[in-house]
Amino acid sequence: MFKKALDLDHHLSQRFCIVDTPGPIRNLAIFFAHSGDSWFWLIGLGFLWFLGNETWKIRSLIMAISILILAAMVLLIKFTIRRKRPDGKWGDIYRKTDPHSFPSGHAARATMLAIIVIGISPGIIGLLLAIWAPLVILARVFMGVHYLSDVIAGAFLGIGAGLLALLIIPFFGVPF
């Protein structure tokens, strides 16, 4: 039964993979696949902390800490389960630094950030991240660095982490 589920996951993930199909959709997928990188977000949140008012300093710090805690959780799960990434050449940096695919850290991070931002920021920014997160999630499968089950599990992990962060934020005196 479990093998059948994994085979179906592998088959569906291969059907979504467009890594070898040149064109604008692939270019967008590459952009979105990288846009969920933790270093990118940590640098951006560092700038937000540096340039923001006191409220945004606390918010950016909470989001940065959330990213780091989530990364530790994802790595713990990945090194416990040790599911090998799908075969492929694209995303060599991910394949070398993190050979395990389950759960997707990008999917978890994108979902968590979208939930946090929806909860703490003006409407348009939250809306943009609510659109962005699923695009990151799909892009990871489109580019062949994750299976569908990896990104689904990552998204659920991100939902939980985002909701937990929103519960914690008021304890720091941060107004919504």
Tell me what the structure shows.
The structure is a single chain. This protein is an all-alpha fold and 176 residues long. The chain has one domain (25-172). 75% of the residues lie in helices and 0% in strands. It is built from 8 helices and no strands. The chain has helices at 2-16, 24-35, 38-51, 54-81, 92-97, 105-120, 123-142, 148-168. Helix 6 (105-120) runs parallel beside helix 8 (148-168). It starts with a helix and ends in an 8-residue tail after the last helix.
User: What oligomeric state do the depicted chains represent?
Assistant: single chain
- The radius of gyration over CA amounts to 17 Å
Sketch the topology as an H/E string, one letter per element: HHHHHHHH
**Shape call:** globular
Count of alpha and pi helical runs: 8
Architecture blueprint of SSEs:
Layout: H1 2-16, H2 24-35, H3 38-51, H4 54-81, H5 92-97, H6 105-120, H7 123-142, H8 148-168
Helix pairs in contact: 2-7, 3-4, 4-6, 4-8, 6-7, 6-8, 7-8
Summed up, what is this model?
The protein is mostly helical and 176 residues long.
List keywords for this structure.
75% helix, mainly alpha, globular
